[in-house]
Write the structure tokens for this entry.
Amino acid sequence: MTDPLFDIGGKVALVTGGTSGIGLMIARGLVARGVRTYVSGRDAGRTAALADELAAAGGHCVGLAADLADAAGPGALAQALSAHEERLDLLVNNAGANAPGDLAGMTVADWDLVLNVNVRAAFFLTQALLPLLRAAAQADDPARIVNIGSIGGLHIPNWEAHAYGASKAAIHHLTRSLAKALGPDRITANAIAPGPFPSRLTDTESDAVRTSVAAHIPLGRPGEADDIVGLVTFLASRAGAYVNGTTIPLDGGYIAAL
């Protein structure tokens, strides 16, 4: 029997970039916990197939195609979700982009891609979904925004990641400003700053990452699906209803040990 304090069954969630990496981990975990889950991805066929796979075990998952690098993408995604739902309990702004970080080699196109997906899209999707978030908000159970940041936005790594680090620092700051602006509407905003997790951006099986993990993470391992799902579940549940405006490192102690 699920503890009511942590029960999120029956809620409605949207996970952007939900077809791979951390987004897929979150989406899979939400579906398994009875959440009506929507995932977005650029490839319509792949997104629909992935959603069908997640729903096959008996849950609810629908894929919504969206290109969040395009200025019109967030509005189109919000409109697509509105065709299915009248409320949104949980928005997970997870979609992310990276580009070669070398200072001399960074192009305007690289910079714009990273900032547009990682920051601009999160802001304007949140803006477009405010009617659905407000419809879900309650005094003792607010609607939730969870932004996926990065420890790369909390410190300067040993490699160059100028656009990526700047974008993640920006999303952490945006989280705080959203928390202040939307708190009176009973909508909370928090960010998670993951350390190394398996994803298309981080190969946790590579020798370089294994060496870094062993040397710098006190728990001695990369993140796993249950780690990110557990934290998102907490933030989305009654147990996390009073947490607002914070960025939570999910890194096995990496930032604390610097």
The two ends are 40 Å apart (CA to CA). The first strand starts at residue 12 and ends at 15. Residues 101 and 161 are 4 Å apart (CA to CA).
